[in-house]
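Subgroup meeting minutes
Present: P.N., E.W., G.H.
Scribe: E.W.

1. P.N. recapped why we're keeping a running log of single-chain structure predictions: easier to compare across weeks, and new members can see raw inputs and outputs side by side.
2. G.H. added today's entry (571 aa).
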Amino acid sequence: MLSFGLAGLLFVSGGTAEAADSATEAAPPPWQAAVAAQVREAANAPRARLSYHVLAAEVALARDRTGEAATQYARALALDPDVALAERAARVAAAADRPDLAYSAVRIWAREAPDALPAQRAAVRLALVNGDAAGMGEYIPRLVAAAHSPRDGYTLVARLLSGRPAHADAAITALRDLSRQHPDAAAPAYATALLALGYNKLDIAADAAARAHANAPDWGEAGMLVAAIAVRQGNAKAAADAVAALPGDAKVRAGYHIGLARFLLQAGQADRATEEFKAALDVAPDNTDARFGLGLLSLSQGDTQTARKQFRQLIDDGERTADAAFYLGVIAQQDGRIDDARRWYGHVGSGAHVFEAGMRDTFLIARSGDLDGALARLDRLQSATSGHDNEIISARGELLVRDGQLKKALALFNQALADAPDDSDLRYARSLVYERLGRIDAARADLEQVLDNDSDDARALNALGYLLTNHSQDYQRAERLIRQALSQDPDNPAVLDSLGWVLYKQGALTEARKPLEQAHEGSDDPEIALHLGTVRWAQGDHAAARRIWAQAAQNHPDNTELKQIMEEHRS
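Output recorded in log:
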């Protein structure tokens, strides 16, 4: 039908041109006028216009003109409320960011396909976006009816209505109204609580969660939602009481305690989280997740005794052995038991920590003075892993630098950068070698290039700021760079040291002392001790300066800079 109409139009157009040339010769015969009338009627028929708008929409899409396509589909849909056409029109309008047209199409789609979950889901979302409270009241029950279960449906509704802060009140109101219509049902109250929690409306969330839990006391998710909201309200005891009262077998109840532990960790309550992990193990001693979580949390809090016990038990149980071995290696390394650390790292043959374990083992070998052994360990690590080539090159260069083989390290980085000139990690590493070689301009150029590629690279910001502090008078730019690095990594001792040192260079002794003391508390680096002692000496507290240097020299007896400054300030 469409092709006939287009052909007819073309035919009439051509005939009209001929008639113009011969208008004075003869009038058109009656049959031609009748055909022309039939063509016009066919071209204006609903099916022909429908086909035209659909074709125009598809042509617009092919030309990436989604707004025009959405308009053409809306016109087509006005001629034929076909369900497939409505779905297509809705998706195109959404892509064109035309929620008004999308909603018009979706309403037809949802009406014509009441059991289609995608249609009802789109209708709920677009009703919210278009501010149609009545529409939400209509489509939410339809979505719930189309879902696998009321609980699944209402939970889906909560997700659909979330993430729109400008519409938060309307979303919460819609669910609260439905929940009040079903006061004895747990699912709508649960969804209301979930939605209100997402919008940080804690009082509304707490009230709705309590009703959901009261209506379905055996529903674990409702009880856990009560606990999560209580944690957010700062009432950890109420959260713990809610979880303790939940029914279920040992495995289920252990899962509740683990879930609460994670809520508490997100709220920064590590001590209470520790208790919940322990409670999970009391209920189910064979729960691997609880044991591993307790081990990690204990390690992060410095309780290596508890951490070691949990990881050893995992090894004995044959559970998560590679992860447990890695962390046992970390603990041994922290305790200075190097042989034990290397033994544990050697047991990490799979999993997420293979590469890190290999790197740690490499530097422990180097620490013993066996450079060749460390380099050989890197070779084995490179053969056993993939995707870490540049990290291994950087480590190899660092080992050469530590051994004083600066020219070899430079050659290594030059060769690597010839193959990967845009690699910021390699360029940063080379800058440090240049600085050690006294080639300050080259070091600065590398760091400037890193920052050209990524102006927020905290390592390069700090390194360049420190370089300028030590090798220029541009202290203002140096301080600006260091403070930018500190804003991204506020607790990094190296960056705090840089800030203190550049402030010292500018004569701000009081301001310099605070970041240096903070850095000294967080790191045993002898350079930080040297800087802090220098500031204390400049402030006139010579005894404090000597004490800081002496302690650092005791921990680092081979550090020549500490020996030199102590000798210079002996009297």
